[in-house]
Fold this sequence. Notes:
This protein is an alpha/beta fold.
Amino acid sequence: MITRVLSLDVSASRTGWAFTFGQARGQWELGTIETDPKRSRAERLVYFRKALISLLKSLRPTHVVIEDIYSGPNVKTMALLAKFAGVAEECCMSVAKVEPYIISQATVKSFFKVKNKKQMFEAIVELYDMDPEQVSFNKHNDITDAIGQLICFYDQILKVRSFRFEKPYGFIYEV
């Protein structure tokens, strides 16, 4: 059976996703699910659910990895993220019949040896040789976070393929 992994960087405004299958290079799909901040929370949750269901039916993942919610100082933000994360977990189980793996930000940052979201973005942009003129932190960090989660999950949790190799001078990543 081919391993099909969907990674979700869940957010109330823009959820980044990355998907890969098999072990060959170039078999990646990327995107976002964006909700309208002018809509009510309930309307945004309904839209997010419908878009995620469509994505799950289209991609048919065998595994889903979701970043654990950010527990920063803003309790309202954390509560909102928890609602979206809950919808994502429920959809994964009810639609794809997959219990998502919840991965912490710290695990992904440690895997890539970065300290913050900006460094994570820069690491993925460099790793995938993305054109800095075409991608920006403000518009694409949700997608790069999802890519990072997916690579870490694929390598460290599933152990299907190694993306990171230890060398005498540090680590090297292969895509």
